[in-house]
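User: Please fill in residues for this 91-position structure.
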């Protein structure tokens, strides 16, 4: 059995949330996906780790670095009400 962790951030309602997950994998078993053991989500990285039960400082440091590297960039798309060509259902 092997244990591994993932971390990433997501922007929700203009706030950055940290997602940390702990998985168990069984490489000796073919075609068996890793099992999600615990996860945490919070705007504070340390609280997300606490929720997920991750306390090892070295693992937390590695996860914070991973989350910062994997920050998703948002793309802003301008919308114009003038070009909307919808029909009213009540019409």
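Assistant: Residues filled in for all 91 positions:
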């Amino acid at each position: 059995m092997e244990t591994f962790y993932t971390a990433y951030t997501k922007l929700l309602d203009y706030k950055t949330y940290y997602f940390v997950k702990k998985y168990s994998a069984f490489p000796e078993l073919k075609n068996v996906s890793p099992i999600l053991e615990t996860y945490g989500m919070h705007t504070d990285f340390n609280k997300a780790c606490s929720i997920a039960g991750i306390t090892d400082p070295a693992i937390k440091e590695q996860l914070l670095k991973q989350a910062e590297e994997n920050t998703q960039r948002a793309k802003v798309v301008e919308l114009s009400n003038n070009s909307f060509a919808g029909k009213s259902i009540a019409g």
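For context: The chain has two helices and three strands.
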